[in-house]
Amino acid sequence: MGQFKNLIKISMMIIITFSLTGCWDKTELDQKAYVIGIGLDAHEKEGKIKVTYLVANPEVGSQQSGGGSTESPEEVISLVADDFISSRNTANTVISKEISYDLLSVIIVSEELARKPDFIRVIYSAAKDREIKRTTELVITKESAEKFILNNNPLLETRPHKYFEFMIRRGKETGMIPNTDLNGFFQVAETDADLFLAIYASTEKERDKEIISDDDFMAGEVQFGGKTNDTQFMGSAVFKEGMMIGKITGEETRISSLLDNTWELEDFKTTFKDPFDERYRISARVAKQRKNSYDFKQRNGKAIIDIRVPVYVEILSDPSMVNFAKNNDKVAELKKSMTKTMEEHLTKYIKNTQEEFKGDTFHLSVPIRKGFWTLQEFRDFDWMKSYPDAEINVNVDIRFGEFGRQTKLPELREVRD
């Protein structure tokens, strides 16, 4: 009897195994057209949008191709459709392979479309297609999305999926673009408590931009020489309730990241005014190794928030030749100057968001919820309406690291003599 039961079990296992090995519905790699980016533009006809597909050629740059393929690494096709979900079937009238969103990494939207009240209806199509991942990046362009895709011509990385991956990842690490994705857009739009920052990019260069700071630029404003790609990723597009209402520079994006505990920011390099010689600026590496602390209270219905921002700073240059490593008094003076500068910049940015955008871009609603007994009490407080009148105080706590590898600098007269 026991042998009979074992035989039945073995037979069932064999049947199940064979049922799982079917390949009737498989699709070979060379039978699919993998869309890396989708461009969305406004159309003159109501209810219509212009969809641009950036389709990658998986054989170019692969080991199988041997690096000697003469095929193009990408194909671009634009069409007018009701949405970018049903447009796939229309695109297959000119693309022979099955269009797939499996490798979709960026959705590129023109600023014109992003500023329309109906944009939220367009982008929510991404939540209905199971192939579109919530980690897909949302990029807003100054020009049309079609023009951005056509003008983007990276010289060192011909594979489009790798180019966007490298550019966006490094931009997020340095704080020049926001650390957000499509999932963050939906979350912020639905909670209606904070503002959302999307990546801002452009292939169009602006001339004669006044240089205020190394980071105080929008995409398209940084001046480069030589021979390189014209595409720039810098700054952020600001969204309120699913519609773009403004934009901020790369420097302001960094400031927003310093105020945001949800942002894992890597170290970045910047410059500060030299307190010992106004002709120079001091280079420094700034990192936020610890989380911000927040103190929230109410007074007569008005929110009062104290934010403490701990930063770690390494000094990389000493243009006035003070030799900080051997002079504690100069270090204290430098710390006082840098603290004042950072607090002024953070306070100015917060004030700007209160007056211009009427909302915060650094998820301030997350820590202040702890100051309410219930979620309903927080909702009744209506953070979006309360934020513009809130009193927000910022304190920066600087901790110095190294002062460069050279511990002793020569006197200027010693060099010249």
From TrEMBL:
Gene3D superfamilies: Nutrient germinant receptor protein C, domain 3. Coiled coil: none annotated. It holds the Pfam family Spore_GerAC_N. InterPro entries: GerAC_N, Spore_GerAC-like, Spore_GerAC-like_C, Spore_GerAC_C_sf. Residues 234-400 form the Spore germination GerAC-like C-terminal domain. It is found in: Membrane. It is a lipid-anchor. Residues 25-198 form the Spore germination protein N-terminal domain. One of its GO terms (biological process) is spore germination. Keywords: Germination, Lipoprotein, Membrane, Palmitate, Signal. Its main location: membrane. The keyword Lipoprotein applies. It comes from the Bacteria. One of its GO terms (cellular component) is membrane. PANTHER family: SPORE GERMINATION PROTEIN B3. Belongs to the GerABKC lipoprotein family. This is Ger(X)C family spore germination protein. It comes from Mesobacillus selenatarsenatis.
